[in-house]
């Protein structure tokens, strides 16, 4: 990990821990989870929002005013809105994506949940998702939330990542493996 990434992760972790503790004290975790969904959607959909948090051309005051207006418009909880304003005033908004992820991770651990990243060649049906989720829950002993994406270059099969473990049953991986075996023979 690069030094810059390590510093960003540390900053995000401290803010996430603080927000979690404040929300837990105020018994506002469900609202924080809704806030995280809204922020994650905004980060994914709005290039202007991403520019605001990453661009050095905005002053602290401009970032703080913008974040305050965005938080009000998104109806974010007071805890998260205040945290974002503080981050803007300290020029730390660039860690917002890591903050969202760290906060989700902290909440998931407290709830006894784990997130599995699933990459498939075609979109999974609801029945397939439920079956995979139940299977992973039986293996991990925790409630599993699926984060599914589609990558048609897999040809078929799945790639499942849970924590540090990865299972690759894709046709692409099998073809690559077969290709390597054939190179060794001939």
Automatic annotation (TrEMBL):
Superkingdom of origin: Bacteria
Protein name, per record: ATP synthase subunit delta
HAMAP family to which the protein is assigned, alphabetical: ATP_synth_delta_bact
UniProt similarity note: Belongs to the ATPase delta chain family.
Pfam families in UniProt: OSCP
Membrane topology: Peripheral membrane protein
Database matches in PANTHER family: ATP SYNTHASE DELTA CHAIN (PTHR11910)
Organism of derivation: Sulfitobacter litoralis
Gene: atpH
PROSITE patterns: ATPASE_DELTA (PS00389)
InterPro entries: ATP_synth_OSCP/delta_N_sf (IPR026015), ATPase_OSCP/d_CS (IPR020781), ATPase_OSCP/dsu (IPR000711)
Keyword terms of this UniProt record: ATP synthesis, Cell membrane, CF(1), Hydrogen ion transport, Ion transport, Membrane, Transport
